[in-house]
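User: Please write out a complete single-protein record containing the residue sequence and its fold in token form, without commentary.

AI:
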Amino acid sequence: MKALLLLPEDELALQAAIVAEQPTVRLVDERAPWPAMTTSRPPARDSVLDIERSVLIWDPSIHPRLPRPRFTRPARRSPLAGRVVRLDRGTYVDGVLTASVISAVLWDGMKPEMVSLFSTVWRAVLQGTSGYLVRWVEGTGQEQRIFGMRIGHHALAAAREGRISLGDERMRLYPPSQEKARGAHW
């Protein structure tokens, strides 16, 4: 599981990188109505931007049938565990960007093709994002690196130019000294 700060342009770049490496991948709208309880034709979309919130990154060449999702809390109980990579899209409203979350369930002995899909998605995330985030620690006057979150290249550029704000007012761009030199105030 990884938190990501992504503008729509970052999401499209992520989708393009995944599909370029694994062209059989489909994007499924988890919250859209499915035609039947179990179907091999889930509600796939052409673009990540066509899905409001929950995106399932699915490769039908690995798992031809995808069970209809049941909304359970622990991933190990979900019928989709080990069959998809899930992206819960963040929001970008009034210039404020909140985090997306990408997650997958991986275990020993699963299909090697699924491990390959997970690797493809992870490579795309690493190539399309940066770890240039710190968190302001209240009362200490210091910033602390955030290792569990990444920011897309478009979002990073927009934040540095002051066109967007990061959803958590304690989040800042790293390195702090360069941002302060550019006139950032925190």
User: Anything to note?
Assistant: Confidence is low (pLDDT under 50) at residues 179-186. The helical segments are 8-21, 112-128, 153-160, 176-181. The longest strand covers residues 54-58. The longest helix spans residues 112-128.
